Amino acid sequence: MNSAISIYTNLLNSCYTSEVIRLVFASFICSKVKANWYKLLSAKAPSQYLALLEAQGMGGDRLDEILRSHAIEPSTLRSNDFDRFFEQRTKLLLEMLGNAMCKKLTPGP
């Protein structure tokens, strides 16, 4: 997690393009979940709140599509595998940022 925060801080302190900054904000800050949903879901494990969203009528395929659009691999949430979630998300975000900057980025130590 520290490597992701470090990358984020370095981006904000640098002169990268607005597209890169947009990607960072979209990935780290923006969410489609409204405040009332956040309160409802925040005390539950990811597998529980995904099941709750599906029970409320959101299809599993659509939910997976939304998660992937935010650089989240759905299987990591469905299995409550937090370590793999952070590893996969860091990898995907670095890939997205690297593509935007035409560079290959790798996680720090």
Report on the architecture of this protein.
This protein is mostly helical. The chain has one domain. The protein is 68% helix and 0% strand. Helix 2 runs antiparallel to helix 7. The chain starts with a helix and ends in an 8-residue tail after the last helix.
Give a concise summary.
With 109 residues, the chain is an all-alpha fold. It has 7 helices and no strands. Helix 2 packs antiparallel against helix 7.
Mean pLDDT: 75
Shape: elongated
The end-to-end span amounts to 11 Å
Q: Which parts are unreliable, with pLDDT below 50 for 5 consecutive residues or more?
A: none
Q: How many strand segments?
A: 0
Largest sheet: none
Can you give the helix content as a percent range?
55-70%
- Helix count equals 7
Q: Topology as H/E string? A: HHHHHHH
Radius of gyration: 15 Å
Count of folded domains: 1
The helix-and-strand class reads mainly alpha
Beta content? under 5%
Secondary-structure blueprint of this entry?
Blueprint: H1 2-12, H2 18-28, H3 35-41, H4 46-55, H5 60-69, H6 74-78, H7 82-101
Helix pairs in contact: 2-7
Features:
109 residues; single chain; mainly alpha
